[in-house]
Sequence to fold (383 residues):
Amino acid sequence: MKKKRILILSIVITTIIIICVVFTLNHSNSKYLSIKLNGKEKIELEYGEDYKDQGAKASYKKENLTKKIKIKTNINLKKIGEYYYKYTIKYKNITKSIKRTVIIKDTTKPEIKLNGDERINIYLDNDYNELGASATDNYDGDLTDKIKVEGSVDNKKQGEYIIKYSVADSSNNENTISRTVNVIKKEEKKVEQKSSKSTTSKGFKIEQINGIYYINGILIANKSYSLPSNYNPGGLLSEFQTNFDKMQSDAASEGINLKIISGFRSYNTQKNIYNNYVARDGQELADRYSARAGHSEHQSGLAADINSLDQSWEYTNEGKWLNQNCYKYGFIIRYVKGKESITGYMFEPWHIRYVGNDLANKLYNNGNWITLEEYFGIDSVYN
Fold:
């Protein structure tokens, strides 16, 4: 029994001695194992900036162990945050590690742009139509719905008003832009009817019924012939809507999508629209694309804008189909390319007018449209 105890004690002592020796050797060798970062311990990157890590280097005495380094990282260059690179070297049962911190941040302000002009003039008593702004951020993307609008316009009082638009991204980078709105006074001029002749230059009869001009039974609204300010059919007339619905349905069966984007406009609505355009672009330019109140076909309830207000729309499948087929349903392309001097308005491939099948067929002219002014022998010029 005594011999057994002595044996156990001897084993324990031997084990302790071995552990001590190994520890001493490892501790002694540990000082020779070195691992160091190449570059800085902490790096800050702007979101979107490329990053190539410089790595680390390791050695044991004079032996280069860099290639034996194991690297672990959680970096994600597409997301702001704090990340790490961990470098580990294991040699002769010795392990050493070192870390680098990489911070990806966003300090770029969102980009914000005004819809419309930086300075806008409106006339007293005209409504101010807020055009708003758009905003994008390099990290958050579209921030338009985050824009805050401050300021107001008193259309009853002349003066200069500032509308402020501000937006901040998720990193609290904020940008601000502003628009100046001038409320100005306008002296309105009375627009007189150009002619009281009973017939046109081509012999068509001109009738005026309740202040509305008809030629050969067709309602006329252009720069020479105006509608009364109190004329208001309440919307698109049934003959327009019924025939448009039929045309829309037939077009859809051919894969063509037609929709009304602007139909009836009252006298006052057209007045506000036109005056805003004049305040923005000046009267000479506005008169090329917008009718003065009382002179707009939209007030008649017999005209509408289809799909787009871009002249290039004529080249789309929808634009081509409308140009080649609308006459079958009693519609005409009202403002024809190359005939601004005749109609008084620039080319509008989207603007259709209902005149009935008989006249529409005559004006179609195999797609080389004849204008109402040419057919009836009338002009379209403001007095």
